[in-house]
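ok here's Peroxiredoxin-like family protein, seq below lol
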Amino acid sequence: MAADDQAMTFEQSVQAAIELDAPLNERLAVIAAAVRHLNSEFADAVDRLVDRLERQGAGAMAPTAGDAMPGFLLPDDEGKLVSLTDVLAKGPAVITFQRGHWCPYCRLNAIGIVEVQRQISELGGQVVVIMPERRKFAKAMKAAVGAQFPFLIDMDNGYALSLNLAIWVGAEMERLMGLGLDLPNYQGNSSWFLPIPATFIVGTDGIIKDRFVDPDYRLRMDTDDLISALRRAR
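and the structure came out like this:
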């Protein structure tokens, strides 16, 4: 099968996952299955990465329910500085870390949040996506998923590092990802660090009410759980 055919087949799988009427993690599993079918070497490398991160306890020291959410002041996709204080002044917040515009799991995760945006708004909730990419790439992802909420730029993963969420992908994944992705260009550095795609539900008092932190980037907080947590955060 030609490389272009493989890419098209994968994009068809991503589109099928987007259109599937199922919980978010079932939709994400469609993407993971497509990756394994089309590139078993890459899928096996991801399994090894996740195993390494789990053995190292990656994400275990991130803030948890009952902790105060550390503050941030980050530029959004329009270049405007946004602080946690600004966000919480409008209501409880969904703060979610995404790896990048190139990540199909992140794209679907963001689409899942967009799909429940009306419910989030009815609960007075605010959504903030945080990404370690240059502004034009964050802006492109926001447009691609049809989001109305801000995408904040965490250059060099500074905020993610402060939350113990930033991880090095490792030499093997750097080599494999580098075959098709220009991460240094997207991020403006050559570190090959990415955030664990965590989600925090934060009350207006600044206290974390719930969180989802998993070093396996193929898994995310389901939107039903997100809505339930946001309801408790009011």
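fwiw Residues 1-5 have pLDDT under 50 and may be disordered. kinda neat tbh
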